[in-house]
Amino acid sequence: MGVSDAPAAEEIAITVEFTGGLEMLFSNERKHAISLPAKDENGETSNVAYLVRYLCQNVMRDHRKELFVLDDTVRPGILVLINDADWELEGEDKYELQKGDNILFVSTLHGG
């Protein structure tokens, strides 16, 4: 079996969107097509918690990660929608990502 015969690591293609100012942390791009590993660093099925870590390590270009995460989860004041449903209805960060998912992060806190 040659090197080219080795199976490629499985990936999940999803769409991630940022609004309410969060897009500034992600190269001022609101919508991102992302292919991330189907398994996290522990071999578990990729979930939203892994997605948040992946975004911080691989997509976020801004150094102010504290505006997006606090204590290894999405910070308070950021609404997360999974396929247009509140993530609280989907198991929050434990939701296992599926091909074609749309994950939307909305900052609800704005200065005045």
UniProtKB/TrEMBL annotation:
Domain of life from the UniProt record: Eukaryota
GO terms under biological process: protein urmylation; tRNA thio-modification; tRNA wobble uridine modification
Presence of the UniProt keyword Cytoplasm in the record: yes
Pathway annotation: tRNA modification; 5-methoxycarbonylmethyl-2-thiouridine-tRNA biosynthesis
GO cellular component labels: cytosol
Modification type 1-thioglycine: residues: 112
Cross-link position per record: Glycyl lysine isopeptide (Gly-Lys) (interchain with K-? in acceptor proteins): 112
First-listed, main subcellular location of the protein, grouped into a coarse class: cytoplasm
Name under which the protein is recorded: Ubiquitin-related modifier 1
Protein's organism: Saccharata proteae CBS 121410
Gene: URM1
